[in-house]
Write a structure and sequence with these properties.
Oligomer: single chain
Radius of gyration: 19 Å
Strand content: 25-35%
Number of helices: 8
Mean pLDDT: 86
Strand order of the largest sheet: 10-9-11-12-13-14
CATH class of the largest domain: Alpha Beta
Shape: flat
Distance between the termini: 39 Å
Helix content: 25-40%
Structural class: alpha+beta
CATH architecture of the largest domain: 3-Layer(aba) Sandwich
Low-confidence stretches: 118-125
């Protein structure tokens, strides 16, 4: 956990009393994603995006991001993902390059125009409405009836596995469960979009059947998180917080089961 948190000395005030104590902070650092593309005899590099993330599982983050943003359609489109070594000292560990298959068609101008990522809002500043929508080639297989007892048990199972949150209280989580409510994967990150991409990236790499899973996120259910679920084929998404209007609209159009305000023994089902 040492790479995910750093110590800090803080002054805590309660009423008229101030005390000094040691605390832990979540690490936040930039990650630059680069793409290698083109024929074998003429490989080129494009700097795709920068995201503020918590270090760890960076390759999963990149794999999930490229897939959920529609840059790669299949894992065979990716030859490898690895940290860049020949970078400035201050960039060491914070630059990663994904090598695309020579036959993958690229549009670097569109990518550079459409991607700028941050920990707070994920992929934002896109230049057009069309850029926001990522095409989903496979329809969602409906999740089926929601088991209330199983659903309300998921937040406690997620929190029990949130190691960094337990020590800092300042990090998002995305948890992937199978259709029986068993925890399959969990990732924590300062960015909720990053946490989702890390989970999806690991699932793609290890062959987890996403179409038989459900995803729980610790915050709200925004449009782009719902979109990532749909592109990955996850049939049910639940959130501790509220969904947005566009997220609900997209979920209904796509057949995604969308649950919000999952707290205690209650929740709201917004779609389908």
């Amino acid at each position: 956990m040492s790479a995910l948190v750093v110590p800090a000395r803080v002054s805590t005030s309660e009423g008229a009393v101030s005390t000094q104590r040691d605390d832990l902070l979540v690490v936040e650092e930039p990650l630059e994603i680069r793409l290698g593309h083109g024929p074998e005899h003429d490989r080129r590099e494009v700097r795709l995006s920068v995201t503020m993330r918590t270090p760890g599982h960076d390759e999963d983050l990149v794999r999930g991001f490229l897939y959920t943003e529609g840059i790669v359609r299949d894992q065979t489109d990716l030859l490898r993902i690895a940290p860049c070594v020949n970078v400035k000292d201050e960039e060491q560990g914070n630059v990663i390059r994904a090598e695309l298959h020579p036959e993958v068609e690229v549009d670097p101008v569109r990518w550079q125009r459409n991607f700028y990522t941050t920990s707070s809002c994920g992929v934002c500043g896109k230049s057009s409405i069309e850029a926001v929508h990522v095409q989903c080639e496979k329809p969602i297989v409906p999740f089926g009836p929601v088991d209330q007892e199983m659903i309300i048990a998921l937040p406690d199972r997620m929190r029990a596995a949130q190691t960094v949150f337990r020590h800092t209280g300042g990090i998002h989580a995305a948890a992937l469960f199978n259709d029986q409510g068993v925890l399959v994967l969990l990732r924590e990150d300062v960015g909720r979009h990053n946490a989702v991409d890390k989970v999806i990236g690991e699932a793609l790499l290890t062959g987890v059947p996403l179409r038989a899973c459900q995803l729980l996120v610790s915050g709200r259910a925004g449009f782009e998180l719902v979109q990532k679920c749909i592109v990955a084929g996850i049939p049910l998404m639940a959130a501790i917080g509220a969904p947005s209007s566009l997220a609900v609209q997209l979920a209904k159009e796509s057949g995604l089961t969308l649950i919000g305000f999952l707290r205690g023994d209650r929740f709201n089902c917004y779609a389908p």
